[in-house]
Amino acid sequence: MEPAETKEAPAPVSAPSSPAAGPSACPTCGYEPTTRRDLVPHCADLATVWLHLDERGLLRQARHCARCQPHGHALVINSSRCGDGPLVTGTDSDTDEAPEPVRDWLTLHG
What's this model's pTM, rounded to 2 decimal places? Predict the structure, then answer.
């Protein structure tokens, strides 16, 4: 009987780490403040919900820090329940009316 061939196992490939490396890291870009002084405004930025409306009318929800947040036109939604609402990108800058997908999201999220 011939000895079985031994194959070397391939070296493990490390999976890329997610952007959110630590508990206070930005879930979009991974930035995490290194000083306590920067942590409070950073966490306040991450508390804001961003709704990104694409040209097909599809809505994507995200959270951003000040470093990676969109800097173009954003529609500000004010909630009568909690005061602050999401910021919406991808809308027409000539109107302050929330598009239907955004209204649907607001209804779904109370």
Answer: 0.72
